Structures are given as C-alpha cells and as structure tokens.
Amino acid sequence: MSKEALYGKTLSELKTCVKDLGLPAFTSKQIADWLYKKHVTTIDDMTNLSKKARTELNDKYEVGLMPPQSFQESVDGTKKYLYQTSNNQFIEAAYLPEDNRNTLCISSQVGCKMGCLFCMTARQGFQKNLTSNEILNQIASLPERDTLTNVVYMGMGEPMDNIENVLKSLEIITAEWGYAWSPRRINVSTIGVVPAMRRFIEESEAHLAISLHSPFNDERKQLMPIENVYTAEKVIEALRDYDFGRQRRISFEYIMFKGVNDSPQHVKGLLQLLNGIKCRVNLIHFHPIPNSPLEGSDYKTMEFFRDKLSQKGITTTIRKSRGEDIYAACGLLSTKKLIKENNEKDY
Questions:
Q1: Are the C-beta atoms of residues 189 and 211 closer than 8 Å to each other?
Q2: 88: left (phi > 0), else alpha (psi -120 to 50), else beta?
Q3: Which of 62, 84, 112 is where one domain is finished?
Q4: What local confidence, expressed as pLDDT, does residue 341 receive?
C-alpha cells in the first residue's frame, strides 16, 4: 500500500494529519518548515520532531518528491524536464534562464481537454488533473530550484480546469509558512474559463495571463473551442468587475498566425475589445506543429502589430522564442510521442 505524500499539503491539512496521529499541534508548523523551507526529502530528516513522531509519520506518510526522469537542453540554454506522475503518466516543465531572471514554466494537467488548434498538448488529450504535490514537485525537484526567480503556470493543461489544486499550490508558494514568495513572481494563464478565473482573481494575488489570439468570435472559435462557451467579450466583462490595483498585472497572450489574425483589422478589433482594461499584450511567434494548417506571421508583421497597439497606449511586446529546438516553446509541450515510444519498448 502506497503512502500519502506530505509535500503539497497546506498548513491546515498538515494540522489535520498531526491531530489524527495524536501529535502536538505545533508539529504541523515544524513539518511545513522542513518541507517548504528546508527542502528535506525524508521524514527522518525532520530532526526536531521526536523519534515517536517520525515513526508515526513514516507509518502513513512520505515526503513524496520525485526527481525528473530526464531532461533536454536547447541551444539557447532552455531546459525541458520530464516528470513522472501517478499511474506512470508524464508531464513536462521548461526552465528558461535569462540574465536577470530564471523562470520555470510548469504544468497543471496531464494533457488537456480544451482542443486549441495550435497546441501540441491538446493533441495528447486529457488524462488527469495534477495534484498539488505533482504541481509543486516540478519546482521542488528541479535541479536549478535555488536559482528560480519566477514561475509561470503555462505548461501542459488549463490551470483553471484544475482550480482546486492550482489554488492549493499557490497558497503553499506564497504563504509565510510555505515558500513565502511574493505573488508578483507568479503568472497563471487561462484560455478564459470564466467561473474558475473569477475564483482565481478573488482567492489569489498572482498575475493573470489570458490567451486571446483573436478579437473576433468566429475566428477565435476556429482556433479555440472555448469561445463557444466563454466568448472573449465575456472574459473581458468579468475582468471589469475587479480592481486589480497597481501591482497585479493582467496580460493577454496573442499567438500570431500568418493571414489569420495579423491584419490591421485585428489591431482595431483588439483596441475595441481591450478598451479601458489596463493590461499588457504579449505577441508570440507560432511554432509550427505537425499537420497543422497554421503558419507563423513574419517578424515584420509582428513589429507592425506591436507598434500600432503601442501607439494607442497598450504596452505590447514580442515575446522572445525559447527552446524551439527541443519542443519546449509555447504550445509545444506534450508527452504523447514519449508515451507511445515507451509502450513500444515494452513489446
């Protein structure tokens, strides 16, 4: 019988654990300290707990961290790590080192059910929601963990489709008893699952990134089926209900596709849609995926698009492409091929 992981539990959950074992209440804070500040990998390493407490904890629990199975390194220094989850499934996380910041792009699901036309993860289909343990393990077991300055929930899966575990992981990252990170170091993406997005805005102070990709309904439906349920207008409407303050950032991700969403009419459409929203727009170069009808816009078109939006007062940047040669760039994370190869090796 497998043991339950302690890593990924909130302080409240740890209090329940120690209470059930008949241990002193203060033990929960000690455990949180060992897990999230001292980064132990075994319960026996929690040396300020009594021997009895460690024995009782070991009977039922384990720390529950798993090192990455493998990694690939890009010519630009990006590293893509493969992590195994429960039931022998896999996820990927991408580490992006830069001069003044080091960002980890983490996954929230195995696969994804949202079906976006431009995304490799969508082709894998949906397998499961990651637990808070599996989300945080991507950070805790990263070889470069101590160099991290930022985390983005922009890997495999739709974070708002796994809102319970995403919020739990965010609580652990930002709580004083946890990692004690500022929420300003964290960016969470969504394609616009409005009810869960509202809950995220109300229960977390992390930055929010919304995948937009077109200001026009019919066109966005072709790229992103979520438009059939939550239109871009509904997403923007929901945002208008909140005062985000000066520090919290709202950004819109916009992958540019040649001849699809990169015309002057799209600039006008975006300006109308985002009117009155204090935000940033990140233009992203499309990385071709197999058997896709889509092509990326050229950089001259992207620069024109950026300049037109900037002239109208919307801060707009062209995001630097990272890790394309190891399929670690935006929309390229997927373990479908890897799983197939592993299965074939078994025969």
A1: yes
A2: left
A3: 62
A4: 52
Q: Is the pLDDT of residue 231 over 90?
A: yes
Q: How many structural domains comprise the chain?
A: 2
Pick from 44, 62, 80: which residue ends a domain? 62
> What does the pLDDT look like over 159-189, one tens digit per residue?
999 999 999 999 999 999 999 999 999 999 9
Select which of 105, 112, 119, 330 is catalytic: 330
Question: Please, are residues 166 and 188 in contact by the beta-carbon 8 Å criterion?
Answer: yes
Question: Is the four-CA dihedral 149, 154, 158, 160 of positive or negative sign?
Answer: positive
Round to whole Å and give the CA distance between 44 and 55: 8
Which residue is associated with the tokens 């509202």? Answer: 198
pLDDT (tens digit, 9 = 90+) per residue, 154-167? 999 999 999 999 99
Active site residue 116: no
Which among 56, 92, 134, 253 is annotated as catalytic? 92
